[in-house]
Design a protein that fits this description.
By secondary structure, this protein is an alpha/beta fold. 38% of the residues lie in helices and 16% in strands. It is built from nine helices and nine strands. Strands 3-5-6-7-8-9 form a six-stranded parallel β-sheet. Strands 1-2-4 form a three-stranded parallel β-sheet. The longest helix is centred in the first third of the chain and has 21 residues. It starts with a strand and ends in a 15-residue tail after the last helix.
């Protein structure tokens, strides 16, 4: 049973699925790929709008889970968010309702544009100071991480987790991003693989197809760990020390 910790499948709420038809198509593909749990992670950027965000997200999740049960589709949707890290976090209220399945783990993203590397650690430290553990989404896509790989090591030393995206590992975003993603996995830095799906065709969640294009350096044991074992530990709010970097090879 696979778990997709990062997916923008809720319709008409961010830049992900734009219609219920898109959403159901993503759910059908998930079921066909043995993804049984999907964490809905719409983008969260406005730290002053948590209440409205949660209302819209939770309403969509409840509607979708009800529809999936009616259709007897073997997929369940949990709540989360993809929290954009910026200066507003220092004045933000309680962020715990945004975590993955109400665990201590908060899916976080940095800017996909080059940003001041001096900001990376203080922003993550603020998450830790709130008793939460940042899960860094798609680190392989940040130009700043490519230019300053020591930031990744520092974040890992702090206790952050890392989630690479399946299409990156499959080479869909280019060789440089693929190589970085592969290194993060094989070096025991990244513990999680997710789809970050936004659309059933343009940015989908056909995980089996992506895995078929993974390079040979990624063994099956690592794929199982990063799509099943480690995500399950996150959703169950396991102690961070039990989600050990590189545990798949033990």
């Amino acid at each position: 049973m696979r778990i997709d910790l990062h997916c923008h499948l809720l319709w008409d709420i961010d830049d992900g699925a734009q219609s219920l038809e898109d959403t159901l198509a993503l759910c059908e593909t998930a079921a066909a790929n043995n993804i049984r749990i999907i964490v809905a992670t719409p983008h969260y950027m406005d730290y002053t709008g948590t209440g409205d965000f949660l209302y819209a997200r939770n309403r969509r999740i409840a509607q979708l889970n009800s529809l999936l049960r009616t259709r007897e589709m073997p997929v369940h949707i949990c709540g989360g968010a993809e929290v954009f890290l910026h200066d507003g976090i220092f004045e933000a209220g309680d962020l715990s309702p945004l975590t993955l399945n109400r665990s201590r783990y908060l899916l976080c993203e940095y800017s996909l544009q080059p940003f001041d590397p001096a900001l990376a650690l203080p922003l993550a430290e603020e998450v830790f100071d709130r008793g939460l553990v940042p899960v860094i989404a798609h680190p392989e896509r940040y130009p700043t991480f490519h230019r300053h790989p020591e930031l990744v090591a520092d974040l890992a030393d702090m206790g952050a987790l890392f989630q690479v995206t399946a299409d990156s590992v499959a080479g869909k975003l280019g060789d440089r991003i693929r190589q970085f993603a592969v290194e993060l996995l094989t070096d025991g830095i990244a513990d999680l693989i997710a789809t970050d799906a936004h659309h059933p065709v343009r940015r989908g969640n056909d995980l089996d197809t992506f895995i078929a294009d993974f390079p040979p350096e990624i063994p099956a044991a690592l794929v199982t760990y990063a799509t099943q074992t480690a995500p399950q530990a996150v959703l169950q709010d396991a102690d961070p020390n039990t989600i050990r970097h590189g545990a798949w090879d033990v």
